[in-house]
Automatic annotation (TrEMBL):
<dbReference type="GO" id="GO:0098793">
    <property type="term" value="C:presynapse"/>
</dbReference>
<dbReference type="GO" id="GO:0005506">
    <property type="term" value="F:iron ion binding"/>
</dbReference>
<keyword id="KW-0443">Lipid metabolism</keyword>
<comment type="function">
    <text>P450 monooxygenase that plays a major role in cholesterol homeostasis in the brain. By promoting constant cholesterol elimination in neurons, may activate the mevalonate pathway and coordinate the synthesis of new cholesterol and nonsterol isoprenoids involved in synaptic activity and learning.</text>
</comment>
<dbReference type="Pfam" id="PF00067">
    <property type="entry name" value="p450"/>
</dbReference>
<feature type="binding site" description="axial binding residue">
    <location>
        <position position="451"/>
    </location>
    <ligand>
        <name>heme</name>
    </ligand>
</feature>
<dbReference type="GO" id="GO:0006707">
    <property type="term" value="P:cholesterol catabolic process"/>
</dbReference>
<keyword id="KW-0479">Metal-binding</keyword>
<keyword id="KW-0503">Monooxygenase</keyword>
<keyword id="KW-0770">Synapse</keyword>
<protein>
    <recommendedName>
        <fullName>Cholesterol 24-hydroxylase</fullName>
        <ecNumber>1.14.14.25</ecNumber>
    </recommendedName>
</protein>
<comment type="pathway">
    <text>Lipid metabolism; C21-steroid hormone metabolism.</text>
</comment>
<dbReference type="InterPro" id="IPR001128">
    <property type="entry name" value="Cyt_P450"/>
</dbReference>
<dbReference type="GO" id="GO:0033781">
    <property type="term" value="F:cholesterol 24-hydroxylase activity"/>
</dbReference>
<keyword id="KW-0560">Oxidoreductase</keyword>
<dbReference type="GO" id="GO:0098794">
    <property type="term" value="C:postsynapse"/>
</dbReference>
<dbReference type="InterPro" id="IPR039983">
    <property type="entry name" value="CYP46A1"/>
</dbReference>
Length: 507
């Protein structure tokens, strides 16, 4: 009995000590949060939902209701001005819409991508995702080495050589739409352009022809799952620990593994071909392999590093272009007068020919304006962020070194002070003679870390849209919403379901 009482006493004392330790840790955490508030509360911003959670409950409510987080940031930017703070647990994010600061920070290489976002994208729920690839690498020297090696795959000369693939893959879409029109079926345009952009990136970047338009594949679903998982992983720190979310977390991990295992297979096949002296294209896959060619002995980390870039290009090379195309198709259906103006240009530049030349793209000026306006209103990658390398002052407010600055092209693109009547779809904003937006329009980011594939993406988009306008008329099926779905990237929530007709039937 005495032994039992001694044991019970020790247990009680241990629990008491543990309680005291937990209390001390909690109080220390509260003091740290209070210090953070004192450090940043001179910067304007919305009232916090709670002392500990900051604005996290607001963000989680928006996600739960299927809203767009960027719309809330737009609302706050209109209320609090060109610089405002947001609290997420013990992190502070400072949102900036000041064009001069946007220029100063994004055009410089001394401010790294912020660790709050980009470090998180290394993994998704414990499964390696983007790792240290071209988009997520925070170290400038590591990024610069990758960018220098990748540049040849995006040179003007190489892009000219891709026109055949752009035309060939777009023709497959035209054939599919022709079948849909003949059968009076409805076309989910988001799904179809997703298949097209996936076909293009796989063929021109990795030398693989999978024909997603005509075959079932797990890749589109895997990409969508990864992006959705990324949104929850970044914005909700407790998501993976909730029992009800375990099936989805498992699905996200499996999707990541599918992309990386596919990459490993394709990389090994290309490496074997290169080792055997076979002629290989100067595409992205070859450039990815070259990033580690200088190593005398490949380590496991080097192999994973190659797969980081494979997944980066596999997703980034199709997702944003597909969403831009879908939004463009949606807006043209809502604005028949703009579509008619486009038809006149396409008929004048291309006529009835099936093969669009590189030289034709430069003549499609109004189509360029339409695509730019689409990205202003629907910036498919809403923004970017940087970690401040030195203290600066924005609009009279001191911003401490180490602060995470958020820049949103979506927010700036919808602000009245930058674009008159901002919710109106008006391609004339980007007329060659119109004043150019001053550091408030950056759908591909700005400066040295701007999107490497932006010319690739816009060439592809032009070829697809020109052929679509040349051959077909389309109307939105009634009952759809025009809302935006936020999955990290932005896409049309309705899928842009259309009824499609041959142009010849309208004549």
């Amino acid at each position: 009995m005495a032994f039992f009482n001694l044991l019970l006493s020790l247990l009680v004392n241990a629990l008491y000590v543990l309680f005291i330790l937990l209390l001390v840790v909690f109080l220390g955490f509260c003091l740290y949060i209070k210090y953070t508030h004192m450090k940043y509360d001179h910067i304007p911003g919305p009232p916090r939902d709670s002392f500990l959670l900051g604005h996290s409950p607001t963000f989680l409510r928006i996600m739960r209701d299927g809203g767009v987080l960027q719309d809330k940031l737009l609302e706050w930017a209109e209320i609090y001005g060109p610089v405002f703070r947001v609290n997420v647990l013990h992190f502070v994010l400072v949102n900036v819409t000041c064009p001069d600061t946007t220029k100063e920070i994004l055009m410089s290489s001394k401010h790294p991508k912020d660790k709050f976002l980009y470090k998180k994208l290394f993994y998704l729920f414990g499964q390696r995702f983007l790792g240290n690839g071209l988009v997520t690498a925070r170290d400038h020297e590591m990024w610069y080495k990758q960018r220098r090696i990748m540049d040849p795959a995006f040179s003007s000369l190489y892009l000219r050589g891709l026109m055949g693939t752009f035309n060939e893959t777009a023709e497959k879409l035209m054939e599919r739409l022709s079948e849909i029109a003949d059968k009076n079926m409805e076309a989910n345009m988001l799904h179809l352009v997703n298949c097209v952009t996936l076909d293009v990136i796989n063929k021109v970047a990795f030398g693989v022809d999978l024909d997603f338009l005509n075959t079932k594949s797990p890749f589109p679903k895997a990409i969508e799952t990864c992006l959705k998982g990324m949104t929850y992983y970044v914005r909700d720190s407790f998501f993976e620990f909730k029992p009800k979310n375990r099936p989805f977390v498992k699905e996200v991990r499996e999707a990541c593994r599918l992309l990386r295992s596919t990459g490993a297979k394709w990389v090994n096949e290309r490496k074997t071909a290169m080792q055997n002296g076979e002629e290989v294209p100067k595409d992205i896959l070859t450039q990815i392999i070259k990033t580690s060619a200088a190593e005398e002995k490949m380590t496991e980390e080097d192999e994973e590093f190659m797969l980081d870039n494979f997944v980066t290009f596999f997703i980034a090379g199709q997702e944003t272009t597909a969403n831009q195309l879908a939004f463009c198709i949606m807006e043209l259906a809502r604005h028949p007068e703009i579509l008619e103006e486009l038809r006149k240009e396409v008929e004048e530049v291309i006529g009835m020919k099936r093969e669009i030349n590189y030289e034709d793209l430069g003549k499609l000026v109004y189509l360029s304006q339409v695509l730019k306006e689409t990205l202003r209103l629907y910036s498919t990658v809403p923004g970017t962020s940087r970690e401040l390398a030195e203290e600066i002052t924005i609009d009279g407010f001191r911003i401490p070194v180490g602060t995470n600055l958020m820049f949103s092209s979506y927010v700036c693109g919808r602000m009245e002070k930058f674009f008159k009547d901002p919710l109106k779809f008006d391609p004339d904003r980007f007329h060659p003679d119109a004043p150019k937006p001053y550091y408030c329009y950056y759908p591909f980011a700005l400066g040295p870390r701007s999107c490497l594939g932006q010319n690739f993406a816009q060439m592809e988009a032009k070829v697809v849209m020109a052929k679509l306008i040349q051959r077909f008329s389309w109307e939105l099926v009634p009952g759809q919403s025009f809302e935006v779905l936020d999955t990290g990237t932005l896409r049309p929530k309705s899928g842009v379901v259309c009824s499609v007709r041959h142009r010849k039937d309208d004549i």
